[in-house]
Specification:
The chain is α/β, with parallel strands linked by helices. It contains eight helices and eleven strands.
Length: 238
């Protein structure tokens, strides 16, 4: 087994598992407890929202289909008070549009049922590493033009104005800022930010680039540019 991941202070990571199928929730909980993590379960959207407030998880495994309201509604309610918590969607749907729907709503990753426990654990490890929940980092500030990103505090600001980003948005922006003026292909971004190939579904990159543009470029001269047929590049505003 890989070394257990912990919070920066050494305490166990917390994961909220949300699935109305009790046997699936318990199976996932058992596998995640084996990782040394603290686990709480919920079997409806309503209890999931309450648990997320009280338990303050470092990540959420969230079924798309719940008896009261769907996973995307849970995500919206949770993100209202915990904007940075990474979310791994569970979905029984195979259609590409449905898989991407959760990401469009702000989820960070997904697995399709039936899934292997090893895959869920691996995805969660990746999510929590890039969310900053797992380790303390030496101070490192990246600056491109009037855009500033602090890797330790995970604060981002442009022209002194704070910008709130989700874990995946932060990782994508960091990758762009570490490679200023360099054109990065969708394949490179998928490999670096998501750690695996979305089966050719590179439109997830377009979705997240659009999110960043709305937050980073809003009210300013654009810094994020599309190079048609090549990829994306971030450079200081002229």
């Amino acid at each position: 087994m890989a070394p257990s991941l912990t919070r920066a202070d050494g305490s166990p990571l917390r994961v909220l598992v949300v699935d109305d199928e009790v046997n699936i929730a318990e199976l996932l909980s058992m596998a995640l407890r084996y990782e040394g993590w603290d686990i709480e379960t919920a079997h409806s959207g309503r209890t999931a929202v309450t648990s997320a407030k009280e338990f303050a998880p470092d990540a959420i495994v969230l079924d798309m289909m719940l008896p009261d309201f769907d996973g995307m509604e849970v995500l919206r309610k949770v993100r209202a008070h915990s904007p940075g918590v990474p979310v791994l969607f569970l979905t029984a749907r195979d259609a590409v549009e449905d898989r991407v729907a959760g990401l469009t709503a702000g989820g960070d990753d997904y697995v399709t049922k039936p899934f292997s426990l090893e895959e869920v654990v691996a995805r969660l490890r990746g999510l929590m590493r890039r969310s900053g929940a797992t380790e303390a980092r030496p101070e490192a500030v990246i600056t491109v033009g009037d855009l500033r990103l602090d890797e330790e505090s995970r604060d981002v600001e442009r022209a002194g104005r704070p910008i709130e980003l989700t874990a995946t948005e932060f990782e994508l922006l960091r990758f762009l800022m570490r490679n200023p003026r360099r054109v990065l292909s969708k394949a490179q971004i998928l490999d670096r930010v998501w750690d695996y190939d979305f089966g050719g579904q590179a439109n997830v990159v377009e979705i997240y680039i659009s999110y960043l543009r709305k937050k980073v470029d809003a009210g300013h001269e654009p810094m994020i540019h599309t190079k048609r047929g090549a990829g994306y590049v971030l450079k200081p505003a002229s």
